[in-house]
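Re: export button greyed out
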Amino acid sequence: MSFSAKILLTSLLLSIVLLLSSIIAISAGSSGTHFLETLSVLTGNSDPDSVTSTIIWQIRLPRVILAAFVGGTLALGGLVFQALLRNPLAEPYILGISGGSAIGAILAMLIGLSYFPGVAIFSFAGSLLVLVFVTTLAGTTLGNTMHSKDSLLLGGVMMNAFCAAVIMFLISMTRSFQVQHILYWLMGDLATIQKGQLSILLLVLPCFVIIFILARPMNLLLLGRETAAAMGINVKNTILLLLVITSLMVSIIVSLSGLVGFVGLVIPHIFRMVLGPDHRLLVPSCLLGGASYLIFCDLLARVLPSSGELPVGIITALIGAPLFIILLLRDRA
Amino acid sequence: MNQILDTVNISLNFRDKFILSNVSLEVSAGEFFVIIGPNGAGKTSLLKILSGLQKAQQGSITIKGKSITKYTRRNLSQILAIVPQQIEVGFPFSVSETVIMGRTPHLGILGMEGKNDFHIAEEAMKFTEVFHLADRKLFQLSGGELQRVIIARAICQQPEIILLDEPTTALDPAHQLKIMDLMEKFRREHGTTIIMVSHDLNLASMYGDRLLLLKEGRVVKTGDPKTVLNKSLLEESYGCQMMVDESPLGQVARVTPIPHKYQHI
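Workaround output, generated via the alternate export path:
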């Protein structure tokens, strides 16, 4: 089987998984609708003004779409950063995007802005500030071979540490009723999405395409920057482009969902263990697999508690960490 | 023979320290050119500058009649392949996946290899005798096998010049000869220019057409092995006593560094 055929087949299989998990997630919820009824609503064969129809179109579908985009983007972001930094612990937030957006979001909440557009805009602005810092750092360190290969990573970690301190400061200055809002945002919250905001998500689609085109150069970057350059890759431009594109798409989705954790760390690792290190296969797989995974976790976060719901970030880690360890043990055996 | 690569007065310094100073050299097409010199002489830096991985602060480098600054990284990589000193094996790529990465400068925008690319990779693996290892992971290989895989990747790039940075340093004598014989054979069959950095003066003597002796960033001597492998030049450059005589193989110089306890002889 040729490699292109392998990519297509894997993508097709994962697309089916994504479609199935979406339909299941739309079918289930606290008001307890059924699978077949959902299908008839989605295919337009039922009364569009019924309660079920409204719940599905106005609440569940937007939420499932958001979960898919957030999961896919974070998994892809983690994949890119693990390759760029050649560090298995890298995830989409590692260079400080999370810190910047969190400070923005918390400030917006403290001055009493609504989730949309107030918190989203502040959060996006916060992560852009971090992106400017990180890009400047990358531009300086990449141009100079005398810099350590980890200076970008260390700069990002310092950025995060600094932001964490600011976040803690802001929280400690906060009155108690606001703390829960802030905590939910910090753990990732898919519940605040409105149908009208979904079109913003389309902005990340071109990012996916660019990253797929850069999949082969990413393979070469794993072998080291000099080796990649020796085989014809313009290393500095490739790294900067990947850095900016990935940070932008992560910033966009974080501004709508808060900081959903763990997807970006664990999904790339799981697929790398199963499919090997070739990014031309990993990019579409992480995208589709990350989307399905977060839809599934969000479903559990909604239906597991008898009342209310859990932040989805709790579920992603509760399932992801043991799954990862099992795969790790199997891989070694 | 026509010139394929030459440099005029290249210099490189880091902070206030000269790493290379006014290095000029000319390499002919199809030549086996060996750069020798003590640790810290600037050999690897010179190789990086010749391959365009590092920019010289002064001087010019011309490859096939065109300044190196006029090449894009991709175009340069179609002419020039590098076998680095250190190889990253951390990510689980297989031998065949690694070798075919050499096709990168010849592929289209999506980076998908065609039949012809796989054929070239297969031929490269057969040439360096690693085809039977095609599905192994890099970290499962011995040092000699790994070096042959990296050479296969360089060959797969179909370059006109191959630059090697101490390719035999970590290998036993049989594997050293194997690597050198492979390079020699490839050059004979394809007319490829070989530029190699080496610590092994005897390998340099036996395989090199011309040698360049570098010390503290300056060219001490360039010429055929018998001219460069001169007792007083070597002793002054390396700072230890040397014995240079004719190898029993005939026609080539043999260099023996003399340990302190034998120096009275």
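Chain A touches chain B at residues 3-4, 86, 145-146, 213, 215-217, 219-220, 222-224, 226-227, 229-235, 276-278, 280 (CB under 8 Å). The button fix ships in the next patch.
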